[in-house]
Amino acid sequence: MDPSTDADIGKYSAILNTYRYLHGEGGEQMPKYLAVHTMPGPATTEEVLPLVKKLMKGETRDAYWVGAWGQNNEEGKFTKFFCEWNAKNEKAVRDVFSKTPEFPLDAIYPMTKIDSEDFRE
């Protein structure tokens, strides 16, 4: 696959992330982290997109973004993001963010993913 458009890059990134998740080093899943970002002011998707694209270019084999939840204000603009990362360790996530210092980073927390299906009877 030769990603040449933003849509192709997105598809390629999703496929690669899924592969990395399923086939991490040693065949084990990589640890998960939650990165919290408070925006300096309410932001639209168009305003956030260049930062996200720049951040994704800094991903490495040791740390890559899986997905996110965005908190919206009453105008529908983003005020905070909660991003799931697969990474070797917290430092690997911080290293990715150090390449995009204009993207705010409040904290990084080690996480364990819990699926509600595991609790259904």
Summarize the structure in words.
The protein has about 120 residues and is an alpha+beta fold. The chain has a domain at about 30-110: ORF SCO4226, nickel-binding ferredoxin-like monomer (Alpha-Beta Plaits, 2-Layer Sandwich), CATH 3.30.70.3090. The chain contains 3 helices and 4 strands. The protein has helices at about 5-20, 45-55, 90-100, and strands at about 30-45, 65-70, 80-85, 105-110. A 4-stranded antiparallel β-sheet has the order 2-3-1-4. Strand 2 (about 65-70) and strand 3 (about 80-85) form a beta hairpin. The N and C termini lie far apart (about 40 Å). The mean pLDDT is about 85.
Provide a concise account of the structure shown:
The protein is built from 3 helices and 4 strands, in the order αβαββαβ. By secondary structure, the protein is α+β, with helices and mostly antiparallel strands. The longest helix has 17 residues, at 6-22.
Q: Report the uncertain regions.
A: none
CATH topology of the domain at 31-112: Alpha-Beta Plaits
The percentage helix is 25-40%
CATH superfamily of the domain at 31-112: ORF SCO4226, nickel-binding ferredoxin-like monomer
Task: For the structure shown, list the relevant keywords.
globular, 32% helix, Alpha-Beta Plaits, 4 strands, alpha+beta, 121 residues
Give the topology, please.
Layout: H1 6-22, E1 32-43, H2 45-57, E2 63-72, E3 78-87, H3 90-98, E4 107-111
Antiparallel strand pairs: 1-3, 1-4, 2-3
